[in-house]
Queue: 3 jobs
Job 1
Amino acid sequence: MASTYTINSGVEKITNGEQAGTWGTTTNNNLDIIDRAINGVGAVPLSGTTHDLTTTDGTLSEGGYKVLVFTGALGANNTVTIGPNDQAKLYLAVNSTTDSGSSGPYNVIVSQGTGANATILNGEKSWIYADGGGSDAIVAKVSTDILNDTSPQLGGNLDTNGKLIKFGDAAEAGTDDTLEFGASDDMQLYHDATNSYITNKTGALKIATETSGIAVTIGHTTSETTIADNVTVTGNSSVGGNASVGDNLSLASDGAILNFGVNSDVNITHVHDTGLLINDARELRFRDADLKILSSADGQLDIDADTELELTAPTVQLNVTTADLNGNLDVSGTSTLTGNVTLGGQLIMPDVTSTKILVADGTSYQEVAVSGDITIANTGAVTIAANAVEVSMLASTIGVVGMWSKVAVRDTAAITDSLNTSGITDNSVGDFTIAINANLGDANYGVNVTTGDDDGTNRNVGEVTVRSQAAGTVQIQHFQATPSESSQRGSADCDIAYVSCFDN
């Protein structure tokens, strides 16, 4: 009967009665195979992207080494296939390959069947186990060096046995001393010597409880919590202390209500595409209770101020039917009124000096003092200065005094006082002509003459007549009865004559 071989290392088992005289040679070869399988360190040169690692029965083959040192310059990852696929193997694999100059360094992938493979990173030393499962065989890492193993794996739960798991400071996420979660290391937990971080690459970072009613507390009672990104709350949010918002605060739903007070007695409601609505007769106050805006009744808006309400704008427009002002109106600029103004009280001008009136100057009404020949007292009395009215100033249908004259006639006629006269001519005894400044050439005129006595001789007793009236003159003649014949009259000088002419 022919020899057989061990399953995993191919050690020859000599059949009884076989190899007489050569038994020692086979035995020595077997011992070499066993030695290589137990302690052998062999270099496995790699090139390209694949390599067959084969163990041949009865032969010191490459696959028989306990320690596999992969060498060679690679330009890509290399897959090493253990054969045959029914041999169980335990190797210490070392990736000592170098970069051929492309974009390495590269990994060595150890495979045996269609099952899982073990990846030996460049520079890594790792125990690997091939289960010899035939076409479905798997290769897995079996690391016992947690400190130096770059990808240690647990076969069960990790019990710290009352000890701590300590991490050093990490420069940033994804570096040393980072706790990573997810197939793509999507969530990371680390500390950078100053701050602590929980970062998430994809999906949502959820802090949740299994059932409702379980509180989630973030921060300490005396600490500050900062959220540097958007926050979305799908349920109700209750803030027991102060809430400070460093940027925009948005109430995104139409009809959103902002409530104030333990009983929400004051609220502001968003009216879609319109504005904000404050409830009922609630007040919007400034400083104190005396400065506020409110609606005290339906249809009424109140703006209350205890001292002054100031409107500052280039134009203030009031579209009202009636403006009711219960108080003083102080306008320091120009007021333009296009409608009627009805005064129920007094019109008070800035300068309240007596005898001033409002006069239109073609642009506006100006406050001016009355001057000239007419004055107005603060009682309303109007006074016209002497000699201020002339005939030419008056309408022709009104009889006005055109002139008057006081004439001393005795012996020689002379004017002692007058208006609108320029001289007198003594024609003879009792006959004189007065020159008038105003032309009384109109046919409608009247002359009044009165004589007077200044010495008690009664020479004023007599008759006065107007002899003629020419343009600019009036001629007067005085007659008196003769001492001897009262029925006769003769010209005589009177003492004083008062002459006045009227023109219409």
Job 2
Amino acid sequence: MMNFATWMRRALAVSGLVLIAPAAQADILALKDGRVIEGPKMTQDEDFVVISYKNGDVKVPHALVRSVISETAGDYVPRTDEEKEKYKEGLAPYQDKWIPIAKRKKLIEKDTAKELEQITEDRAHDEWGTRRKEESKNFRWEYTVPEHVKDAFVSRCESYYEIFTKDWKVKRDKRKEKMKMNFFRDVKEFYQVGGAGPGTLAYFMFLGDYDLCLFYDQTSMEFTEMVLYHELSHYLQKLLNEDFKVPHWPGEGVAEYYGGALWDAKKKKMDIGLMQEGRLAEVKGDIESGTRLKLKDVVTIQAYTDYSWGWTLVHFFMSDSKLKKGFQKYLKGLANDKNVKRTMGSFNLWFVSPEESLRYLMECLDIKDEQELAALEQEWYAYIDTELVLEGVSGLEKGAVQAMNQGMRLRAKRLFKEALDAGSESANIHYRYAGMIRYEDRSQALELMRKAVELDPVTPIYWYSLGDLLEDSDEDEGQRIKKLAIEMDPRVERQKIDFSKLGEQE
């Protein structure tokens, strides 16, 4: 067998890239979420890719793995009884087929060289100064994420754009630049280069060109999608009239409505207006505590509840053809109807007062007086109670993270627990909740952190936090695991967050 240095040189020769190739002695693990681990020796068994560090092994489930680049990448050792029988016939598995062993080895070596080329290319552009740029049909992209991640989000954004513009009968001014998507590879680069403050998930720049700045959360593609869909709606709302400032409640309510989107990667299709279970969990919690917001208050009082209660009101309007027609007339008319009273405000944008917004909403919905408004309010309440139903764990997860980000500690704890009781398989949820209860229930916190590591064994902060918890009962083992985490990423000590002290005691 050729040595690894020779193999790597040949692979690189195939790719045509040599100058910025990874070190010859390093094995490389590429994950489906875009992360790349390089360095220690890697071996494979039936269930895992095993990364061997000085302070212990890290077992990565095959379900998380896109490819492994190593000296033995093309070698095949049968593991199951079926594989052993096929091996006797000179066959080996490849992409759900049985093919000759020699042919499999050549194909895998070819795949490996191609994967190495892509990894090398991605690394050449993973700093903002060397970022890649391209245009899709309706957007300009500047990005440091891996190419396959960018491609996935281009498909999503273009589908989202087509649905929104068709639904609202608006279009982009082709004389102006397409909106630019600044897509950062991780939160660190987002803060350092994008200039975002701590806790910021994404932000828009509406001065001059429209720029959306966001980062790729490698541990949760779903979270990145949620943030993207919400913020993208704000841009598309600007197509109603770019000189108009959409009031807070319909702006955020519509953003959450269209943010409840689900992308089917196989069918290349997107569904809009699905259940925002995180927001619904907040609303249901308010109702259980005896709070129901007035429809008038949602429309006239700018508040955080515009994201939750505002979403339910938009969902209610969009669910009925007559109400949808009236609501769309309202939102488009706020920006363009000459009979709406508008005033010039900051950034040379037109505004409407809360009172005018309510008046015009009633006009567009053909609501003549307070009595009819109260009747509509009761219909809305009934819709929340009977039609908006918590259906799955994902919404509870989102709701918990949203509550934590908003400083709502008690609500966050309740939603974290409900998500876990409902069967959450999110490592991030286990990690966050463990951090919140570490001083209240160390035994449960330790169990949760072990599960976080099991679900996502390549995130160093999960290992470090596990070691931190273990030190109280087993100092030597805790220290070993913390050293393992530092091996994985020397910066991990600076990433530690004490979740137990976050948020307000509401």
Job 3
Amino acid sequence: MTDQSENPVISAPSSPAANPDRSRWTALYVLCAGVLMIVLDATVVNVALPSIQTDLDFSDSSLAWVVNSYLIAFGGLLLLSGRLGDLISRRDVFLVGLTVFTISSLLCGFAQSDVMLVAFRFLAGVGGALTAAVVLGMIVTMFPEPSEQAKAIGVYAFVASAGGSVGLLAGGVLTQLLSWHWIFFINIPIGIATGYYSLRHLERDRGLGFAHGADILGAVLITSSLMLGVFTIVEPAAKDGWTDPTTLLCSLGSFLLLVGFIIRESTTGNPLIPLRIFRSRNVSGANAVQALTVAGMFGMFFLGVLYIQKVLGYDALETGLAFLPTTLVMGTLSVKFSEPLIMRFGARKCLIPGLVLIAAGLALFTRVPVDGSYLVDVLPSTLLLGTGVGVSFPSLMTLAMSGATKEDAGLASGLVNTTAQVGGAIGLAVLATIAATRTEDLTAPGKIPTAEALTSGYHVAFLVAVGLVLAALVVAFVVLEPAKAPEGDEGPDGMTEPELEAEVGTTL
């Protein structure tokens, strides 16, 4: 926990009289609407890919770029976007990103060729990064009081974590009832409405100015490193494996760019991304926990979908509905119970049991049979995962923002989103490769049927996913700092342990 004597409490600017307290919560819902639109777009496309392939004549090899082009831009620009919010204005960066994303969605819906759609999806990733990167930083400055901040982060955590499963349902509904074009067109009214209410309810803020971080070389190095890294994960690593020469070469290139960035930021007097943010054990530890946890959880939202569709035979709409209980449980816990739990027990003590529940949910999926039943074999796992995410992710985000100063809030927000995206991409590539390799080995001539081979591949991948979440649990125990005072005892200023831990958020 950051020492408050070294990092004094800095309250967010008070709202003008014309902007009553209720307006802050309206602003929160506006921000979450923008985030939901961005998060949905990452998964809503998946169930529409067959229709897109047929209409635009995508080859099997190029179809993945409908998803990959978005992920490369989104994951590569999050960290830079967060820092731009600190330097320019988080509100302005959010609005620019929202505008770019809305326009690119319109262009995607009208795309007439595979090249056009891939290019417009890349542009959507740029807008998504600008929009999403600054939101968490804006939330913690709008809600400096610990209990309010915990509740607000709970709402944000629900939107950010449940958006993926909602996207599967929305994609299935829109594609089956209308056409694939509407998975993009639906963003237009949402984007316009969000922009309108953003102008009305988001308080204008002033950034630090480029004099505090206009490091062009640093920006080029970190953006290139992240984009090349995400590209490596979603393209050569996913297709040819991690030992393929192209994968190794791209990985080395991404690593060298990252090393160059670290050297640059540690030696320049005006760094784009001050490395001091990583001195906080809670900031560094929480982001490491998130990367490992999201990497493991992607197994559920990707391989779990494949199991339900390819083994159990569900269609796109039924698959989306199958994950609805997960979303409902996440929402109930994140929105209604995360704030009192964090205030009562502290963020770290809520995080750890949540991670245990996530690991348990993934462990149950290592035993799903070929002739499985949704109620018996799938639903218990999804409910455990939903409970674990609903308990752990608001706490995780609170801890990830806890050691950042007000000036670095945008950077910390971008870092949270970056670790989630990169962790998810790595997890997806690793788990999908493991499952595919196992399945191919078992489907050789004279061996077991396809459905059994697929299920066995999923079993192995989910076992690795459990290992990733258990690794996150170890990091949470070893790295994350507990509150200073024993539970129930009073610390500085007469605060109890949970209040001390939550109070860290007010250092923003």
